[in-house]
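Ticket #4471: structure output looks truncated?

Reporter: J.K.
Steps to reproduce: submitted the chain below (551 residues) through the standard prediction queue, then opened the result file.
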Amino acid sequence: MLIEPLLLFDAVFVENRPITELVMPAFSYRSDFLKDWYASDLKPQQADRKKIAEENKPIEAKRRAAEEEINSAKTELEDYTKSIPEIIRKTADSLDLAAGQARWEAAQLEALANNVALSPWQRIGPFGEGDLKKAHDRAFINETEVDLKKTHGNLKWEPAGNLEDGKQHQLTGANCSTYLFRTIHSGIAQERELSIGSDDSFKIWINGKLVADKYITRGLAPDQDKVKVRLAKGENKLLFKVSNGGGGYGFYFKTEAIPLPGDVVTAMKVESAKRSEEQQATLAKYYHSLAGELEPIRRETEAKRQDLAKRLNEKQDALNKLPKPRNPDDVQNELNRRFDDEMRGKMRGNEFVRVASENPRYGGVITSAAMLSMNNGTHRTHPIARGAWVIEVIFNDPPPPPPNDVPPLNEDAAEEHLTIREKFARHRENPDCAGCHSRLDPLGFALENFDITGRWRDKYPNGRDVDATGTLLRKYPFKDVVKFKESIVAEDKRFAKAFTAHLLRFALARELTPADTLVVDKIVNRTEADQFRLKSLIAEVIRSDRFRQVD
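Returned output as attached by the reporter:
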């Protein structure tokens, strides 16, 4: 903004043009930024929401069709996956698996002769106490003769088949104990090593005999203790008590064993002819899960399941490749971003181009954005500040300072629907202010169509029309800023006197005296025939006796 009036002055000087062209030139200098600043609304392009909605319709239709295909493929996959167990069951019913099951049972029994099988865990607790020590020492149940059917207050034994060996399991409670129970079937009398982890203390009983008792405070981790136990041939009862003080709580258990469920081991130990229907069903169901005779149907069903899964993935990939409907808000945000980037780029530009003045409201120092922005507050225009600048700079006739006892204009107390001119009207009712305001107000309000940054406006934020009418020097009525500037140009001699006075004061480096007025008049008269051209004025100032006789 500052460069614009400087370039104008430079052109008037270099080309020795009349100084009235500083007020109303036939040209001006514009950067890309100033072109937009003066002529555009400085708003980004608005997204055409209706057009976007129309463009989205075929896209949304294709995506809906693709989503329907995905849902259909997903349903087909889910339904087939659920049907696989039944398909395998029917296949198993059509085959004679008795011989294969008998061979498998014999192999497992032989393996069990020298190994152990573990039943799922049963759990009861937590039992609360005052602290870890008391919880560790106290027997909350009969620890040497476990009865899984007995209740203890509101606590009872419950199956905990989800507690897998070789994994860390979290328990709940503080200053408490939890019991875990299971059976260990051993084909022979043998010694086994148990790998234990606990948070905090633990005890272990085998067949009612305490074989491990460790009082400690620690965090849970695998394989913290190794406990060797002696197993009898057949079924052995293991009781595991874990006690916790505060903080974390949990246990870890592992030992080498055949990975067979306890009910399967129990059923296999019974002679075929003496097995109950439930035991027979248990063994048949478990054997079906691994029977080699059913491997072809398992491969067939898995292949079809994978094919359906592949089709589902292909449908999903097809949907992902389809264009997505545009969100109008996203489009607008992108337009906003591009506009901001464009304006930042223009603001950084330093190239100015000389252009013809297409709109007389712009151009000249008075209506330059630099001057209009400079003489303002942060929230609204200051007509008095602008008027004071015009009367001081253009006419070199500064007003006296306002009286000290005149309060400032209280805008907050004024009604919101009033214009600035109407608000100032009450201020001018003070007789001490009326004299200066009669001179300043027409000059300042003539520029009211320009906001605080020098951009044109026809209305105030409250919707009221801007009134820029007035009278210059009591003889030039004007309805807008163009007529206002034309009135100043019409008073070219008055402007020339003011301009010359500024030049002479600068040249002499002092304030002018009444006697200097004669020198100013002489310079103006000598340059009038030359239309008060800038170089002519400067030359006459230099030739004047006042300048040549300066000490």
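Triage note (M.O.): checked the attachment and the full token line is present. Residues 87 and 525 are 117 Å apart (CA to CA).
Status: closed, working as intended.
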